[in-house]
Amino acid sequence: MKADQRLTRAIGPWSLGANAVNLSVGAGIFALPAAVAGILGPAAILAYLVCGLAIALVLTCFAELGTRVTRSGGAVAYIEDSFGPMAGFVAWVVFTLGFCAAADAAVGAILMDAVAAVVPAAGQGAGRVAALVAVYGALAAVNIGGVRAGARLAVVATAGKLLPLLLIVGAGALAVNATNLRFDAWPSVGQVGEASLVLFFAFAGAECAVTPGGEIRDPSRTVPRGLLGGTAFLIALYCAVQLVSQGVLGPAIGQSGGAPLAAVAERLFGSGGRGLVLACTILATLGVLAGDLLATPRSFIPVAEDGMLPASLASVHAQYHTPHVAIITYAAVSCALAVSGTFKPLAILASVSLLLIYLAVCLAALKMRASGPAPAGAFRAPGGPLVPVLGAATVGWLLAHTTRAEAAYTWYSDVRSTTVDLPPGRYETILPPSAVADLMVYLYWSAAARDAHDGRTVFSRPGGGTRVGERLSGRPLSLWSDPGHPGLECEPFVLAASSGPASSVFDNGLPLARTAWVDEGRLAALLQTRHSAEVTGLPLTPAIDNLGLDVSGGAGGVDDLVAATSGRALLLTCLWYIREVDPQTLLLTGLTRDGVHVVEDGEVVGTTTNFRFNESPVDLLGRVAAAGGTELTLPREWSDFFTRTAMPALRVDGFNMSTVSPAS
């Protein structure tokens, strides 16, 4: 008796659709918005629409074949029935080992990294091994206990990770700034293609939902409804995540440390927001593992029944009616890869493996149509051969362009895995625009004219008065505010909620105009009220709710500053926990966060530890060695209070990393 005849058909449309979503929504969704926006900027949504159409073409072929081939195996069975047993075996090797097992192991490693943030013992050594064995063992046990139990777990895991994700998207939708989503120029076809290539693999996994074909109830109805319904939901979810992330963060999405959803959640819910995203990451990765243990072991069955694998891998448990040997074997292989770390070279090839399977399935749809009429009630993609032909063409294009993406991924992995031990000290340092904004905003907040006149700040002149007119930098740089600057528009009149050193409710309604606080490197103005202007004898220059920095001759961005670096430098991601140490020098202390990269002779060669820094932004202006072009950005530290800034990336001499920090 064939294995499928002993399996229980218990998977309906909701379970199949939920597992399709579950298998696709992994940890990558938390980083994707920044990656795609980095290529297309505000036009990033175009890549989601293009990619959504492309993946829909491919998965429509899966839906059609899933109603013709109703036994277990999914893509492996489709290819075997179309092109023969040897093609099926090759497909099993490429799909099950080249993609599923490697990706499963990578997800397991991500899960342990997330769990280690809560339970440090799970992060390394015996604790990590024990945790991985426990996770894979528990998931295998649930799936051996019956397909209904495995399907219910997949549904629960899907709901568990989608609820907090939908909460973030729903709350974030209310905080979206429509200006951040506006784009004036259409990106090139090449840019959209590059972004789509990055995004395409975010949908990977949905096709695995049809692998347990022998356990799907009423395939002609369940497969197209569940798979295509799940695909439509995925496209809508990913578009919503991108729109909310970009709409809330704006240009600062690129300075979100690779975690834009965490940045959105932190802005919406405070420090608890990052905890919510951490919990969502754990549920997302755990859900992917649960769904994969439900689906992928069924791909062993057709190959084992053809004699290409041991026959025991097609055996079905007498009581639970599940392929228990295949489940145990697959769980053991995935767990071993996750424990050993040998999944890394396979993970680099996983995307190519998946594309080869996608291409074969699109061709199988054409081949099976030509081989004879479909069974009664089988789903057929509309448009004749158009859907499989376009699907195959799309996959072929992606295969032709994937080499560069894999090379970039390999380089990035090498850099991330190369650690350079550096002691505290002063280093030439490249600051991204967001970090520059954090420092300049603090300088701006400390520039009250009355405090300077009274001798209390860095802008006080020894012996009395202020330092207005003194040179702060040898470079021709300007620090300015302008209520009418495009993208930074704010109230063109004073609007003070309370009175303080730099504001007065009695000045409300006074008109505001562009003001240079530092002009050509000289201190030109300080924050004034009408009263402080009378006391200091300086012009009335009220505070304005935006801030920009221009450096004459600055061009390009962080990448250009890295490429122009001679010798060693540090490249920061962002700063946090910034506090004042000495108001007389405006000495600030704080921590680097989300990675410090080491640059040598124009190339990023590795990462080093995070540091505590001690720096004065006023003194820093005098040590600017090079600058990029000014761009709209968002301070990370002050994003709840001061959101309108335009800053360049800076390369600064002698940035003081005072001590090593364990912060991540």
Question: How would the blueprint of this fold be written?
Answer:
Elements: H1 13-24, H2 32-40, H3 45-68, H4 75-83, H5 85-116, H6 125-144, H7 147-173, H8 189-200, H9 219-249, H10 260-269, H11 271-295, H12 300-305, H13 324-340, H14 343-371, H15 386-417, E1 425-431, H16 433-445, H17 449-453, E2 477-481, E3 515-519, E4 522-523, H18 530-536, E5 547-551, H19 558-563, E6 568-582, E7 587-600, E8 603-608, E9 610-615, H20 617-621, E10 624-627, E11 631-633, E12 645-647, E13 650-661
Parallel strand pairs: 1-6, 5-12
Antiparallel strand pairs: 1-13, 2-3, 2-5, 3-4, 6-7, 7-8, 7-9, 9-13, 10-13, 11-12
Short synopsis of the structure:
By secondary structure, the chain is an alpha+beta fold. It contains 20 helices and 13 strands.
Describe what you observe in this structure.
By secondary structure, this protein is of the alpha+beta class. The protein folds into 2 domains: 3-183 and 190-417, Amino acid/polyamine transporter I (Up-down Bundle); 425-661, no CATH class. The chain contains 20 helices and 13 strands. The chain has helices at residues 13-24, 32-40, 45-68, 75-83, 85-116, 125-144, 147-173, 189-200, 219-249, 260-269, 271-295, 300-305, 324-340, 343-371, 386-417, 433-445, 449-453, 530-536, 558-563, 617-621, and strands spanning 425-431, 477-481, 515-519, 522-523, 547-551, 568-582, 587-600, 603-608, 610-615, 624-627, 631-633, 645-647, 650-661. It has a 6-stranded mixed sheet, covered by helices on one side. It has a 5-stranded mixed barrel with strand order 1-6-7-9-13. A hairpin with a 4-residue loop joins strand 6 (568-582) and strand 7. Helix 6 crosses helix 11. The longest helix has 32 residues, at 85-116. The two termini are 56 Å apart. 51% of the residues are buried. The model is unreliable at 342-348 (pLDDT under 50).
